[in-house]
């Protein structure tokens, strides 16, 4: 089925796409030990926001996360999780703040990758063309795919680091075993040689 669009609808379509894509961001931050990092988004009533995060490096790969509304009421809180996704629909206009806390750790710094995307609320009266509704639906689906791809990239990086660390440990363990083997052989040769030495009493 082919859909033909007139130039009359083009500005509305472009505006819809820009309004959806403009509210998407991805970040990589370092949360140092005993500290927290906070960010905020200004939302209007009925706007939607989704925060997806994953700890890529540091300690036990865990982080505390919470999200508060403009009145500082905690909407969601997650304790010591390595990955998570939180979605909210704003019930009031204002500044919504979300924080990543590493205050439980006194030594290890954490690398956290997260992305934030949202949907700016548009009433049904403002969306008249079926094509515009389809574009909104496709934009939401593309954002979800983008989040999943970023999650896969972080997991691949973490697993690669784990594999490389394991290979290094195996390598150095093999070197240590070889050195111990050489030392044991040298000691055995020396010890056996002492049995065949002729002791002369002068």
What features would you highlight for this structure?
4-stranded antiparallel sheet; elongated; alpha+beta
Count of DSSP H/I helices = 2
Can you summarize the main beta sheet? Answer: 4 strands, antiparallel
Strand content: 25-35%
End-to-end C-alpha gap = 112 Å
- The shape, in one word, is elongated
Query: Can you give the helix content as a percent range?
Result: 25-40%
The residue ranges in which pLDDT falls below 50 over 5 or more consecutive positions are 1-22
Structural class from helices and strands? alpha+beta
Oligomeric nature of the chains = single chain
* Tally of strands: 8
Helix and strand sequence: HEEEEEEEEH
* Strand order in the largest sheet: 1-8-3-6
Please state the CA-atom Rg, rounded to the nearest Å.
30 Å
Mean pLDDT, all residues: 80
Domain GOLD: 36-118
Subcellular location: Endomembrane system; Membrane
Protein name: COPII-coated vesicle protein
Transmembrane segments: 172-192
Report on the structure:
Residues about 1-20 have low confidence and may be disordered. The protein has a four-stranded antiparallel beta sheet. Strands 2-7-4-5 form a four-stranded antiparallel beta sheet, with no helix packed on it. Strand 4 (about 65-70) and strand 5 form a beta hairpin. The N and C termini lie far apart (about 110 Å). Helix 1 (about 10-20) packs parallel to helix 2 (about 130-195). The protein contains two helices and eight strands, in the order αββββββββα. It has helices at about 10-20, 130-195; strands at about 25-30, 35-45, 50-55, 65-70, 75-80, 85-90, 95-100, 110-120.
């Amino acid at each position: 089925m082919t859909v033909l669009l007139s130039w009359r609808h083009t500005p509305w379509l472009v505006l819809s796409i820009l309004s959806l894509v403009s509210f998407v961001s991805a970040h990589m931050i370092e949360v140092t030990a005993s500290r927290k990092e906070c960010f905020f988004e200004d939302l209007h009533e009925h706007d939607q926001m989704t925060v997806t995060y994953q700890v890529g490096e540091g300690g036990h790969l865990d982080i505390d996360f919470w999200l508060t509304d403009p009145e500082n009421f905690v909407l969601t809180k997650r304790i010591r999780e390595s990955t998570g996704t939180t979605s909210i629909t704003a019930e009031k206009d204002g500044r919504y703040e979300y924080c990543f806390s590493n205050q439980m750790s006194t030594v290890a710094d954490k690398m956290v990758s997260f992305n934030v995307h949202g949907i700016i609320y548009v009433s049904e009266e403002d969306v008249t063309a079926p094509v515009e509704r389809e574009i909104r639906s496709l934009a939401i689906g593309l954002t979800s795919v983008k989040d999943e791809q970023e999650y896969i990239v972080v997991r691949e990086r973490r697993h690669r680091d784990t594999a490389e660390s394991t290979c290094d440990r195996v390598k150095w363990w093999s070197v240590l075993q070889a050195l111990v083997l050489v030392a044991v052989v040298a000691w055995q040769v020396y010890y056996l040689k002492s049995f065949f030495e002729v002791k002369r009493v002068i």
